[in-house]
Task: structure prediction
Amino acid sequence: MTSPRRDRRPTARRGRVEHPSKAERAKRGRAARAETPRSSHARWEPPADRRDPVALLEGQARTRLPELVPIRHGRMLVSPFTFFRGAAAVMAADLAGVPRTALDAQLCGDAHLSNFGMFAAPDRRLVFGLNDFDETLPGPFEWDVKRLAASFAVAGRDREFDAGQRERAILALGRSYRGAMSAFAGMRALDLWYARLDVDEVAESWSSRATAKQRKRFDRGVAKARTKDSLRAAGRLTSVVDGRPRLTSDPPLMVPIEELLPPGERAVLENVVRTVIRSYRRTLPSDRRHLLERFRYADAARRVVGVGSVGTRAWIVLMLGNDDGDPLLLQLKQAEASVLEPYLGTSRFTQHGQRVVEGQRLMQAASDIMLGWVRTRDVDGTARDFYMRQLWDGKGSATIEAMEPSAMSAYAEICGWTLAHAHARSGDAVAIAAYLGSGDRFDRALASFAEAYADQNERDYAAFGAAVDSGRIAAEAGV
Result:
């Protein structure tokens, strides 16, 4: 059930911005229950004409670096959870066929539990938030919530939690999202915009319910995140060659620019990187541009990142400031069309790097000061879109593989608040809160959907494994 493509042009181009009263907005949210009952979100039954999940993944591979695609498949093959992480395109196609509301927000598009974590805000305090926006696009708020809920069901199974333990985590997620949205609906607009989740506040509110072992693991993760900056990244990823810092070779995961092409072509690629930096600089606010201009280009390397992103073009760029001990490491990452676009319409931004950056700024309470975008022609003459950000800036993530049931439920609460805040910044919190209501009907529907979709994910994972075994697709394990 795919709705017509929506108009994604900027509001200003469509005319005057309407400002309905809070009562009218709440009425709209309650009216949406008649069109899309909250109980309807519980259902997942694959349609007879469901698209082949392996074919969807093969379609994604066509635009990626062919030598890296087997690494992506190998990482997805590790478990049903890693498969789920790489299968955002599959779930987008499935969500397009189920009942949906018309209550839109800016979607992450890949809101699984490993795409949340810590990072440093511009004031250098650690905050908790969403940290992956490659698939961001406006759409029905519940698509993000459903993907997040399903990820808890899949991860809970991976941890061998029983059905009751998984359900408690997903109900905690739904309750937290719903309660936070209600609170945001009652806030002043500026208070909502400035709200954020500081990691110190998370520690204070959660520590009373945590075991000593859990607190120790959390504190260790926070301490590690506080040390993750360009200086530490340079210490791990660079070495001194002929008296100057160079990015270290670790093929196929990291390949310096001089190893990618013959000597005669390396200069061409290096010139492309320098041109990219100059073009990217123009997308920064003037004060950030001034800061970037204090650094000079020193080196670049191609790097394999994540699970779902493997095969897209991603680079590390080493910049140096006052001297060799003043590094800035930037990540240049390719941005392709969102997996949501076939079902929700094309982005109003024709440049996908800008789509990612604008979506991130809208959803995050605090974003990386070096966020920018660029379109460039690669050495093969193909125009591609990229976005740029700092490689490490206080980034830290939860250790899912070590979570106990109580910790996963607590983590679900934190993720629920965070996703609700991202949606409230971009969508209509009053309408969404009115739709969700004060009872747990939506929460329980979410839990039912998550388990049913985790079953589907396991069937898809088995089909994916069979495709690897038959030689239909190649997978390289352990990389």
Notes: Residues 1-5, 7-12 have pLDDT under 50 and may be disordered. The chain has two domains: 21-222+402-470, 230-390. Residues 441-470 form the longest helix (30 residues).
